[in-house]
Amino acid sequence: MHMKFINIVGIILVFTLITSCNKFNIFKKRPTTSHSTGWAYNTEENGGFSVSDLNEQETGPGLVFIEGGTFVMGATQEDITHEWNNIPRRVTVPSFYIDETEVSNLDYLEYLHWLSRVFGQEHPEVYRKALPDTLVWRDRLAYNEPLVNMYLRHPAYQNYPVVGVSWVQATEYCKWRSDRVNELLLIKAGALQWNNDQKNENNFNTDAYLAGQYGNLSTTDSTGGREGIGRVALEDGVILPNYRLPTEAEWEYAALGLLGNTVNERIVERKVYPWNGTYIRTGDKKYQGSFMANFKRGKGDYMGVAGSLNDGADITAPVGSYWPNDYGIYNMAGNVSEWVIDVYRPLSFEDVADYSPFRGNVFMNKKIDSTGSVAQKDSLGRIPYVKVTEAEIQNRKNYRQADNINYRDGDRQSMITTDWLSASARDSRNTYMYNYGVNTLISDESRVYKGGSWKDPSYFLSPSVRRFLNQNDASNSIGFRCAMIRVGRTIPGGN
Fold this sequence. Notes:
The protein is an alpha+beta fold. Among the domains are: about 60-190 and about 240-360 and about 445-495, Alpha-Beta Complex (paralog of FGE (formylglycine-generating enzyme)); about 410-445, no CATH class. The protein has helices spanning about 1-20, 105-120, 125-130, 145-150, 165-190, 205-210, 250-255, 350, 425, and strands spanning about 65, 70-75, 90-95, 95-100, 260-265, 265, 305, 310, 335-345, 365, 385, 445-450, 465-470, 480, 485. The chain has a 4-stranded mixed β-sheet. A hairpin with a 2-residue loop joins strand 5 (about 260-265) and strand 6. Helix 2 packs antiparallel against helix 3. The radius of gyration is 26 Å and the shape is globular. The two termini are about 40 Å apart.
């Protein structure tokens, strides 16, 4: 009798568990009829409204999934620079994707080759603008000319992180990568024909395709191949979101990799570096004493003593070197520092939102022509964007202007006092608070970069450290990696 009671209770518990799970999954399967009207989907008889059978985002090439969550963003060690620009605060970062490794020379050379092939004859300036500044290796009192000539293009360096790339150049690479990935996805889906002869404005661009301004749709070939599926819409789920630079919060969250330090929603050990402990050497017995990243150990010591090199690299190391963190991401400390998308402000930690924090929003819309349609693509095949107009934001409550870079830090309202300023000066955005070259080196073009590099001491290996550089400048110690938003379920395959 006792066992029978236990069995009954067990059955009830299992049934309860199943039903409780199902109530969160009523739309997990592809619906065939409308839940609100009862009309059938995907039938021409009912008007042809189609519903995709894809309900999960595909992981883009090179990306690693990062499960989002809350964490304390900011300083994890003493602020030896006394800048107080990373005061700890709790934020929440939505799930996203980030590159497993930094973008390599090989990756960037592929990009340059494509630009040369597509724009080289009629728009050679596009290729020239994308070229990394190899002269960043020059030093007035060092012999680095071999790196100037060899680092980007020699096969021995092809898997090393690309450097000499400005924030603007890195952003353009992300746009190009988005288009190339989506182009291949559409080809695989049967929506596009393979075309290796793209030139100038006729190259594939995701925005132009979605606006109906890119042809080359797939059709049945002479060998009896698969018939084209026609133009794909965003609702079909084939096209991925854009690759982009990660936000500062995303980068820091991914670098810390607190996933392996969490038990029952508690962080059992707050990390100083992307690995556990307060030391920069591994505790693995097999590699006892080896450095976890390449960095500058001390003045004049970039690699150690011959026969016992401390980190195995004098400058950068190949991407994917050393140990990944708990998210499986490589080189989030050492090798090269990395651009993030944020505009730098000293007190951004206090000013920005606590959900998906970011400073740098300039709200844009696709340009609309006189007929109300998306404007024609430009000579490079891109759809033009314009800032949102005053008419569009006239009655909005969540934002009042297109450019929000200076919101609460640099705009007139955030000044301590404006009594002594003239009316024209008060109306001039950030004229006095961020008067570049007069009382600050910070401007609206100052971008954050994160992580220590091969030429930095160990202090900068902490993911919390933040520095800035003008978005048009480059360095031999700054590279980048791409990120992508996670749409839909927070966890792949989850509820």
